[in-house]
Amino acid sequence: MMMGTFRVTVRVFSLADPARGREVEMLVDTGATQSIVPRGILEELSVPVLRRQSFRLANGDAIDRQIGWVGVRFQDTEAYTLAVFGEQADATVLGALTLEELGLEVDPRERILKPTVAWLLAAA
């Protein structure tokens, strides 16, 4: 069964000033490692660039993008995540690392995000 795609609204906010944030509609993509937020929004929130990173696209091409730390909130759950500074042609994406940091998983049948139980290697 193919999952299909769906969108959710996430609050993206500045770690330096959590009161500064924006509601952003994002495509849920478990095949994407990191989340992509439009550059204009990250600049508006004064998110500092941490570094440039190389990424491989689905067609095999390599690109470089800037990344930086942001806060994300979905419903009652909040986390810090590395976000890619999206360029004009880039989709706005909620990627796998951010989903894991939020403790969420995709329910492909209902096309929703729901809490997940994380795995931990520890002595019981």
How is this structure best described in words?
The chain is mainly β. It has one domain: Acid Proteases (Cathepsin D, subunit A, domain 1, Beta Barrel), CATH 2.40.70. 10% of the residues lie in helices and 47% in strands. It contains 2 helices and 9 strands, in the order βββαββββαββ. Strands 1, 2, 3, 4, 5, 6 and 7 form a 7-stranded mixed beta sheet that branches. Strands 8-9 form a two-stranded antiparallel sheet. A hairpin with a 7-residue loop joins strand 1 and strand 2. The radius of gyration is 15 Å and the shape is globular. The termini are far apart.
In short:
By secondary structure, the chain is mostly beta strands.
Radius of gyration: 15 Å
Distance between the termini: 36 Å
| The CATH topology | Cathepsin D, subunit A, domain 1
Tell me the CATH superfamily: Acid Proteases
- The helix/strand class is mainly beta
- Measured as a percent range, the helix fraction is 10-25%
The largest pleated sheet is described as: 7 strands, mixed
CATH classification class: Mainly Beta
- Helices and strands, in N-to-C order? EEEHEEEEHEE
Discrete helix count? 2
Task: Supply the number of structural domains.
Answer: 1
Integer average pLDDT: 93
Shape assignment: globular
Number of strands: 9
Uncertain residue segments: none
